[in-house]
Amino acid sequence: MYQSKPPESRYQSRTRTNVIRLFRWCGGWGVATALMAFGPRFLWNRALVFTLLAVGLDVAVGVGMILANKKYVAELDELQRKVQLNSTGITLGVGLIAGVPLSVLDAYHVIPFHADIAYLLILMSLTFAASNLYGTRRYR
Amino acid sequence: MKNRLKVLRAERDWTQAQLAEALDVSRQTINAIETGKFDPSLPLAFRAARLFGLPIEEIFHDQDPAPL
After folding, report:
1. Measured between CA atoms, how close is A11 to chain B, in angstroms?
2. Do B26 and A12 count as a contact with CB atoms less than 8 A apart?
3. Count of structural domains within chain A
């Protein structure tokens, strides 16, 4: 039998609004970053002014994303904030302990590939997602 | 820290979602407090005390024995 969903609480509604806002800023930052990375080669033939404008846009949208994330975390309840804090701490630690050795291994040509910053971003993203999932399940 | 949140909630026939709504937190947080996985902050404990109309120490108890 069909059961209607219970009405959304104030907390759920506030969190949903903040998640949507953060998601939009993250998407915007992704687009701005792609524009900054590929625009010089494919769109404006390396014209310096446009490249600098793209960098400025990327930084501005990035600041917006940070502020949206700050608001999202500030309006979470204390348990969710704890989960976020744990995930952020683990991600920062993993980024440090993986990033520095990777850079050293690249500098001494121990690894056969260039230690691109993208590898570190991917590792940190996966670490944050995994630790967030673990934290959420732990307190379920 | 132990607490009587689940008992007090059951006495009033409230669901976890209803208590969460009244305290402006997630249902997950209420569940974590009730099962002892998470200790609430003082402001949240006071909000719960106000909601149930009880002194805070009648809802939350320290598990450790008092020092001599």
Report:
1. 6
2. yes
3. 2
Using a CB-CB cut-off of 8 Å, the residues of chain A touching B28 are 79-80, 136, 139-140
Summarize pLDDT for A14-30 with one digit per residue, the tens: 999 999 999 999 999 99
CATH of B2-54, one of 3.30.465.10, 2.160.10.10, 1.10.10.10, 1.10.260.40: 1.10.260.40
A84 domain residue, yes or no: yes
pTM equals 0.85
* CA dist., res. A102 & res. A121, Å (int): 13
State whether residue A139 sits within 8 Å of chain B by CB.
Answer: yes
Nearest to B28 among A6, A10, A139 (CB): A139
Domain region containing A94: 77-140
Q: What is the ipTM of this complex?
A: 0.87
What pLDDT score was predicted for residue A3? 59
Residue A2 has pLDDT above 60, yes or no: no
Q: Which long-range contacts (CB under 8 A, 24 or more apart) does B53-62 make?
A: B54/B8, B58/B4, B59/B3, B59/B4, B59/B5, B59/B8, B60/B1, B60/B2, B60/B3, B61/B1, B61/B2, B61/B3, B62/B1
